[in-house]
Design brief:
Oligomer: single chain
Order of helices and strands: EEHEEEEHHHHEHEEEHEE
Number of strands: 12
Strand content: 15-25%
Radius of gyration: 22 Å
Largest sheet: 4 strands, antiparallel
Bound molecules: iron/sulfur cluster
CATH superfamily of the largest domain: NADH-ubiquinone oxidoreductase 51kDa subunit, iron-sulphur binding domain
Structural class: alpha+beta
CATH class of the largest domain: Mainly Alpha
Low-confidence stretches: none
Number of helices: 7
CATH topology of the largest domain: de novo design (two linked rop proteins)
């Protein structure tokens, strides 16, 4: 979530208090360009020369790979600079981070970012390009394991990335009406009348049609924490 702020000498904690944001729920605060920096809770009390007019907050449930992608996209589109390191480098960074968040990250992506960004930070002609490279390096230092898990473990630890979310049908709510099965165009749902339906994760493409079709709110999208569901359809406990 974004907030407008005024330039001042202050602390992140004081700014958050002024904005009525509960600092204990946060993973990080991002100060927009020209500051272009993340501040983590252990530094919320540090005095800062605030020159940005906007900050974004990231909750514990927010994904920092996605957060970094958003920040980089914003910095990249904020400049008309066409220099090789600012423009092309920014494009490379955003493409890599986009792939990481879309479950298409490759071994070597983090090393590539660590290789590209120090040069970009020095060689980019525009301030936004240098800031983008600095943001990537800072995020890798602060949130490296969380970002790398998208590639090495094919998981989003915070559960915030849509591409890593999975769909499940809750035994406690399903009445076996079959509407989700009819809605699924990928044959990813198993079930029959009066049986709790089950989603085959290998076939599911996370299109959300089943969740929209279910009149009982029995289909849920799950991030890092998955509900317990049966491997095959079982008789419904719940009556219609
Ligand atoms: S999310 Fe889409 S593909 Fe997956 S089970 Fe539901 S309808 Fe089928
Ligand atoms: S998940 Fe919803 S739509 Fe699908 S069978 Fe159960 S109650 Fe019906």
């Amino acid at each position: 979530m974004k907030y407008t702020i005024q330039p001042a000498t202050t602390t992140t904690a004081a700014l958050l208090e002024g904005l009525s944001v509960d600092a204990s729920e946060l993973k990080a605060v991002w100060f927009a360009y020209p500051m272009a920096m993340f501040v983590t809770p252990d530094h919320f009390g540090d005095e800062l020369e605030v020159t940005a007019t906007e900050l974004s907050v990231f909750a514990q449930t927010d994904c920092m790979a996605h957060g970094l992608l958003d920040v980089c996209e914003e910095l990249r589109t904020a400049t008309d600079c066409t220099c090789t390191f600012g423009h092309e480098g920014g494009y490379q960074v955003v493409t890599i981070l986009g792939d990481v968040c879309a479950k298409k990250g490759k071994a070597g992506d983090i090393a590539l970012l660590r290789d590209l960004c120090p040069t970009m930070k020095v060689q980019a002609l525009c301030g936004e390009g240098r800031a983008l490279a600095g943001a990537v390096l800072q995020a890798l230092d602060l949130f490296g394991p969380e970002i790398e898990a998208h590639i090495t473990k094919k998981s989003c630890p915070s559960g915030g990335c849509p591409a890593f979310q999975t769909y499940h049908i809750l035994v406690s709510k399903c009445t076996g009406c079959g509407k989700c099965l009819k809605a699924c165009e990928d044959g990813a749902i198993m079930g029959k009348a009066r049986f709790v339906h089950v989603i085959d994760q290998r076939k599911c493409i996370q299109c959300d049609l089943c969740r929209q079709a279910c009149p009982e709110g029995a289909v849920m999208r799950a991030g890092a924490k998955k509900p317990k569901t049966p491997p095959r359809p079982i008789p419904c406990k719940r009556k219609k």
